[in-house]
Amino acid sequence: MDLTLDQQEEGFRDELRAWLERNHPGPAPRGGDQAQFEFEREWQRRLHADGWAGVAWPTEYGGRGATLVEQAIFGEELARAKAPRPANVLGLVMGGPVVIAHGSNEQKERFLEPILSAEEIWCQGFSEPESGSDLASLKTRAVRDDGGWRISGQKVWTTFAHEAKWCMLVARSDAEVPKHKGLTYFLLDMEQDEIDVRPLRQITGEAEFNELFIEGAHVPDENVVGGIGNGWMVAITTLMNERAGLGASAALGLSNTLDELIELARERGVAGDPIVRDRVARLKIATEGLRLGAMRALTATMKVGTPGPEGSISKLQWSSTNQALTELAVEVGGTEALGSGSLWAYRFLRSRANSIEGGTSDVLKNIVAERVLGLPKLR
Amino acid sequence: MNFDFNDEQREIKSTAREFLASRFPPERVRELAESRTYDEGLWAEICELGWPGIAIAERHGGQGLGVVELVILEEELGYACAPTPFLGNAYGGALIEEAGSDEQRASWLPGIASGGARGAAEVDADPEPLVVDAEGASILALAEGEGAKLVDPGDARLERLDLIDTTRACFRVAAEDGEPLPGDAFPAANRAAVALSAELVGVAQRALDMAVDYAKEREQFGRPIGAYQAVSHRLAEMLWDVEEARSLTYYAGWCADAEPDSLPLAASMAKARASDAAASVTHNALQTFGGIGFTWEHDLHFLLKRARVAGRMLGAPRAHRERVAALAGL
Ligand SMILES: Cc1cc2nc3c(=O)[nH]c(=O)nc-3n(C[C@H](O)[C@H](O)[C@H](O)COP(=O)(O)OP(=O)(O)OC[C@H]3O[C@@H](n4cnc5c(N)ncnc54)[C@H](O)[C@@H]3O)c2cc1C
Q1: Top-level CATH class of B186-327?
Q2: Distance in angstroms (rounded) separating the CA atoms of residues A294 and A248
Q3: Which of A216, A369, B43, B311 pairs as cysteine with A375 (C-beta 3.0–4.6 A)?
């Protein structure tokens, strides 16, 4: 057991720290509007210019080819520096890795560079009004058309669809076979009249996600990823990337917010309150538990290729801790923290989605029960 | 960065699991718990394996390994729910090694390391302290103000406490005199808290394993109860409890060996989390078993009781959380 960084890892960290000191653009504007988005796009361009955008990607595709530990360091350091998020998050953590894993050479050539540079923004069109947790039941149809496919259906909760050039879209290309088998993974060009993007306002007041109404949009054959009928398998890779991206950096983000909460408790004169102290300690312990579990999972992944049981609970730990943290903050912060322009109110409201987005906590518990504990399936 | 045991440590773990499973099968644990005794023959075997001296320096007769190795053994002892004087001896040894004079070390550590002349130590247990494994010990390390003192068992009055956990012997001890340990007792207390956290992780893991096995087997309404989400989600949450406590405990063990400045916070986080995890996991395991889990005949209650009592020892969760809050800057 050795939880320190080796020389190479320290070198990576120091180089990144120095870079961040010179290039940190300051805090992003809030509001989920165009100004924030352009700020984040500019930030990603700066990251990319010095090779920090696709840290996890292999160097042959314009990435940095970082080891798993270096990837964790990257997430931690950006969180530590309170750096803004890059505009094309979904392209960087899902779209790119899927193209790298399952795409053709032509697709790699065509799609990867603009993801890194934030020239082309990506969104994820999986969820539908009637298919959320039960993704494989989705109904959006893909019908053969000369030289490609015609897509029709409705998608929902599609984050950044209003900014996106490409949509990772899973649709039913064969209605005759069992539900997991009839799906295909498409890269859908969003610049078509057949797609109507309508913003959905979230409880925070922002409209980051959208509804997509698709009526006969076209996808050429060369934009099928992983082959016809393999959409489920390809989609699962996407989701695994989404979940693996959490962990270490999420814990550091929590740790930053917890420090702010401690400051708030002091300002509000409740730092001596035993109940506040007890709850803060619980949050501290949960945050460290998440960080350390992520490190264990990382070690397991390096050794055997998959994270152990501790990895499967990271998302549960993170969402519950972030929610409990922001709950305590709006309690301690009084009506001021519940003001509609307050950062704490925003965080409190935004974190309500943490146990839903990227797989609900109930569904994650199903996965832990079935895959880790080996309990029988409900069915 | 490598957050896992090395080959030697894995070997220690698997040897311990195997040995303890053969020597402390549930029937034997029950016999010992019901008769409130330790098995001296089994203790002698444990001594032959060198366990009592695992974390004691070689020059004092120990194996010279670290707290990580101690954690490994303690987790397995908890998993087996083994009634042994291991903890009291380990804590007594840590106190003398960390806070004792050269002379005190030379007098007592070889016996403690071999297990042939055991030590025992007083632990904070809210409201009154208690001494674990005092009976049969050759030397007692008792609290004295902020520090500790050594007392000859012949000069002390021992009274066994009648606690729900009968797999461990706890005593009220009175002794006027004694020989102070000159050093700081705090590091040893932290090490012992980490060791006890590991034991609690082991207890919780055992209860979880038993409950998961049962949930796969027991059928109601025509299917295994583990297919019902009320049951399976509870089990998933138990795994979460166990794994989070384990991560914090292993980390604290590593801090004790490699990063002592981080130990006070790490030990308190581990002890708070492991105590709560063991309490809730054993409770939830009982719920999973239904009525049978509430019977004396079922083995689960030994784990439940051990979890509750050990959770109070060496600082109850609330006290450790208070320390965590202070160290976190509140
Ligand atoms: C902020 C945010 C951003 C999002 N961004 C995207 C995006 O970019 N692209 C995209 O495709 N999707 C996105 N989503 C959608 C998200 O993936 C879904 O909301 C999620 O998978 C749940 O689906 P649902 O909302 O239809 O809820 P449902 O699946 O209908 O679930 C409703 C409730 O039932 C429970 N439930 C459902 N099935 C089970 C079961 N088998 N066992 C136990 N309980 C169950 C759920 O836990 C939940 O409590 C986003 C969601 C949010 C909140």
Answers
A1: mainly alpha
A2: 6
A3: A369
Distance CA A186, CA A107 (A): 12
A205 backbone φψ class: left, alpha, beta (φ>0; ψ -120 to 50):
left
In the three-class reduction of DSSP (H, G, I as helix; E, B as strand; rest coil), residue A27 is classed as coil
Is there a contact between B232 and A4 if contact means CB atoms under 8 Å apart? no
The DSSP H or E segment spanning A344 is: helix A343-351
Q: Are A219 and A148 in contact (CB under 8 A)?
A: yes
Give the model's confidence band at B125: pLDDT under 50 very low, under 70 low, under 90 confident, else very high.
confident
pLDDT, tens only, A334-364: 999 999 999 999 999 999 999 999 899 999 9
CA distance B320 to B267: 9
Residue A321 token pair: 């801790």
| Ligand 1 atom with minimal separation from the A155 CA | 11
**Residue B130: strand, helix, or coil:** strand
ipTM above 0.95, yes or no: yes
Residue nearest to atom 16 of ligand 1 (CA): A357
Residue B244 DSSP one-character state: H
- Structure tokens that stand for A13 in this block: 């960290």
Query: What residues does ligand 1 touch, defined as CB less than 6 Å away?
Result: A 123-127, 132-133, 157-159, 209, 353, 356-357, 359-360, 362-363, 366; B 229
Residue B88 main-chain phi, psi, to 5 deg: -60, -40
Question: How many angstroms separate the Cα of B264 from the Cα of each of A20, A252, A275, B192, B275?
Answer: 32, 21, 22, 12, 16
Domains parsed from chain A with CATH numbers: 7-87 (1.10.540.10), 122-229 (2.40.110.10), 246-372 (1.20.140.10)
> Which one of A128, A242, A267, A357 is the catalytic residue?
A242
* Ligand 1 atom at minimal distance to the Cα of residue A358: 17
**pTM score, whole prediction:** 0.96
